UniProtKB/TrEMBL annotation:
Annotated organism of origin: Adineta steineri
A GO term, aspect molecular function: phospholipid transporter activity
Gene Ontology biological-process entries: lipoprotein metabolic process
Lineage: Eukaryota, Metazoa, Spiralia, Gnathifera, Rotifera
UniProt xrefs under InterPro entries: Lipovitellin_superhlx_dom (IPR011030), MTTP (IPR039988)
Transmembrane segments: none
Gene Ontology CC entries for this record: basolateral plasma membrane; endoplasmic reticulum; Golgi apparatus
Listed name of the protein: Vitellogenin
Amino acid sequence: IALPRLIVPEVAGFRIMSRLSVDLMEKVDNDKHQKYLNSDAALKSILSITADQYHPLETEKQLHPCDEYCEKFEEFIRDYNKKLARSVIGDRSASDVFLHLIALVKRQSETTLTKVLDKALNSIKFTLIEAFVSAQTPASLNAVLKYLDNSMNAKNKVELIEIFLMASTFAPRPSDLLLDKILERLPKFTTIDAQLEQSTYLALGAITHRLFDLNKTSSAIEKYTTLLHNTKKKALVYLSIYNAKLDLYQSILIDEIHRCNDTNLCWLALNALTQYDPEQFSTEIITILRSIYHEQKGRVKTNLQIRQLCGQLLLRTDISIGDLMNLILSALDKTNHQLGVYMWRLISTMAENDELFL
């Protein structure tokens, strides 16, 4: 049968194996194949793809031309179960089969998808979950969530949910429905495992970031915003905002940084702030960063890591000559050798690369 042609943007992409394990596929350039040296290179390439570009998990046409398998979905799974196994990830023909699978999933009923997922071999279950999430139809998402609900007593329930969350996180054009479904499941996921709770918040932030580009008036984003304001576990809020990186959440970070009376929370808020454009920082933010870095009178003492982060952010703003001179003088201050060495190296490197915006 004719399978859809794979559209290759900057990279062929990668498939999520689990939260801590990413299997890399081949990078393609003029039909020449090469492996990525590390996961960071692949992640940066994938995350740089915008909603207007083709994504490696999409076909040339959004819907695959209907063939004999449209009405024989279970038969397709049986015929290609070896190509859907985790052991063949990265194989070009397996990638084509995966694309075909996504297109077929979009045409199936919830009943059919639920039946297939329940009966599937363990070797292909993760692949099916990824495909169902990639399809993003109400039927496919409901089928996955129903399966997860029925797997709460399974030994690998955390891994199953992680696969679902990671596939959702990297959806290039996430829908309101996808964000809504994860928000609905958040209370259940948080009772299972602390790491899973963190993964859910990270996924929510990443999905919101992409969804905002597509639909700024999304009702699901409003629910997510309410969640951020009402959640008492602020560490999770700041981790989520790190991925969301939207201007409407910057005030939440500023409030925490202004207090900076809990070093862990302050660092997380500052780290999330690094995702924003420092050149667009308000005078208020710059004043707060300056007061923390220089430990101005009345300011609660912080640790080295927080001061380093504040110094780094200040250098990346549209910095004034006065602020730069004060940072240089602080780098020469022998009373805090570690901070001085860090800042001097940072200033020198940025100057050499013409990265100081004076």
